[in-house]
Amino acid sequence: MIKAALIGAGRRGIFAYASYALKRPDEIQFIAVAEPNEERRSLLAREHGIPPEMQFTSWQELLDRPQLCDVVLICTQDREHYEPAMKALERGYHILLEKPMSPNPLETIRLAEEAERRNRIMTVCHVSRYDTYYSTLKQLLDAKVIGKVMTVQWTENVGFWHHSHSFVRGNWRNSDETSPMILQKSCHDMDMLQWLIGGNCVEVSSFGKLSYFKPENAPAGSTERCTDGCAVEHECPFSAIKHYYNEKDSGFPMAVCLTPTLEARLKAIKEGPYGRCVFRCDNNVVDHQVVNLIFNNEVTVAFTMTAFSTENTRTFKIMGTEGEIKGHHENNEIEINYFSGKKEIIRPERYEGGHGGADYLTMRDFVRQVASKDLAGKTSAAVSARSHLIAFAAEHSRITGRTIQLNEYIQELKRGERHASQA
């Protein structure tokens, strides 16, 4: 039986990961929680029977204690990953770390190096790698069913409603407080592309802007909040009342308010961040971005991230020397078109749970990894750091307008760190 502690009892921590222990109590048990929000801390403690003396208001309180258990899950906000992760490694814990590892590229490198130095497991929550849909795609590519892969078109359709919730009103709206969009949302994509293609990215270029969710695009008659008598609220596709004023007990409404009553939801919309007009928030992350990549095996990638989609899913076309593979994740379809004229459609097995069952499978594999003392696993810190650096390089390219040589970029980062330490 693995004993665990949760640092950061947000929606992902509680419902995506810790819930695994309620389904598999013979495999893992949560015996401690650190969370500043009393409502969320108490909810996790009640569900898992955690006594008061093992409930902490901060990660510092928990990690200042001698090692309490085998593993910690770190599911705090982006800028609160690095310090608790480094402290947990020092204390001797194995770690499941929510992505991104850090919004700072050097901290990302340091985490990977420290986990290796201390012989500790640090698995990063790139949940898509655990999804049966993408693992099936990986098997097809490795089997060379379309020959040698040459070109990839990959699209992250964020969805207009998901973008407005998470990246305009929500926790990841402002890169000064969290991470750039390409890192926070699309480090999954960079990770999967690196994994699926099977080579190392060598060059990156990128363009992107925050073009729409800005004050100058606010409709006439709109107000600071959707509940302030907005003249266009009924017609607005981003209306907080439409999206959150209901009694659903999961998903995005749960992020707005844990209490699934109309009274509580209305209060949250009137007073909290999720009731703001999407054109009058303090957001600064891009709402559309493109990234071009070339790998050392000569595979080229055209990646698009966009808020302006009705669907919230990934779609792709992978082109090889003997055929092409088209994919639509939400439809659970992988379509293979061979140059011979043969066509095949595969629908992989799915598991219950978030991200097509990938949240559950991530926890299942992490528990097995800890039990077997497998330091590598599917998404080790070392592998994840490399894909994070692709995202960092893409953002650097977007800001500077330069094409980035990835290895040179990494060496520049390390030289800068050495110079800073010598100053």
UniProtKB/TrEMBL annotation:
The record's annotation in Pfam families points to: GFO_IDH_MocA (PF01408), GFO_IDH_MocA_C (PF02894)
- InterPro entries this protein is in? Gfo/Idh/MocA-like_OxRdtase_C (IPR004104), Gfo/Idh/MocA-like_OxRdtase_N (IPR000683), Gfo/Idh/MocA_Oxidoreductases (IPR051450), NAD(P)-bd_dom_sf (IPR036291)
- Domain Gfo/Idh/MocA-like oxidoreductase N-terminal, chain residue ranges per copy: 2-125
Mind telling me which SUPFAM superfamilies this protein's record contains?
A: Glyceraldehyde-3-phosphate dehydrogenase-like, C-terminal domain (SSF55347), NAD(P)-binding Rossmann-fold domains (SSF51735)
Q: Name one GO molecular function term.
A: nucleotide binding
- List residues of the Gfo/Idh/MocA-like oxidoreductase C-terminal domain: 138-373
Q: Which family does it belong to?
A: Belongs to the Gfo/Idh/MocA family.
Q: What is the name of this protein?
A: Gfo/Idh/MocA family oxidoreductase
List the source organism.
Answer: Paenibacillus cremeus
